[in-house]
């Protein structure tokens, strides 16, 4: 990691020890299994969960995603549960849909990301996949008190 500067927009600036694509790849390869890809786009496994990581240096962004299931296969109760989890139990990772698929995702500016935050993000994304249909938790903190008066499946 070096010093990275990003121009434009509030909160943008220079970060000492800034994460770059090469540092992100090194952090990924030290934690993941079956890493494939290069140049800021990789797929891999963490604790048996298939994930992908994408970067966009032009916009100083990175994204971790892990597919869970076809969004059309979710029940109304599950849809409500993932929305509520995004507020209470998902912490930094989130549930989201794209192109008809439900994903667990972590999206963050690249340069201010630390190796510790990245390691936590990998665990949280895997946690949301593993707990879909049960606790809907990233495995980290829980904010607020989720409703206990309904079945989440």
How would you describe the overall organization of this protein?
By secondary structure, this protein is α+β, with helices and mostly antiparallel strands. The chain has one domain (2-131): Yope Regulator, Chain: A (2-Layer Sandwich), CATH 3.30.1460.10. It has three helices and eight strands. It has a six-stranded antiparallel β-sheet. The chain has a two-stranded antiparallel ribbon with strand order 1-2. Residues 7-11 have low confidence and may be disordered.
Q: State the CATH architecture.
A: 2-Layer Sandwich
Q: For this entry, what is the oligomeric state of its chains?
A: single chain
Shape: globular
Tell me, what is the CATH class?
Alpha Beta
Distance between the termini: 43 Å
Q: Can you list the strand order of the major beta sheet?
A: 3-4-5-6-8-7
Order of helices and strands: EEHEEEEHEEH
CATH topology: Yope Regulator, Chain: A
* Cα Rg: 16 Å
Give the proportion of residues in helices: 25-40%
Number of domains: 1
Q: Count every beta strand, where a strand is a DSSP E run of 2 or more residues.
A: 8
Q: How many helical elements? A: 3
Tell me the fraction of residues in β-strands, as a range: 25-35%
Biggest β-sheet strands, sense, barrel: 6 strands, antiparallel
- Return the structural class: alpha+beta
Q: In terms of per-residue confidence, which ranges show pLDDT below 50 for 5 or more consecutive residues?
A: 7-11
Instruction: Calculate the mean pLDDT score and round it.
Output: 87
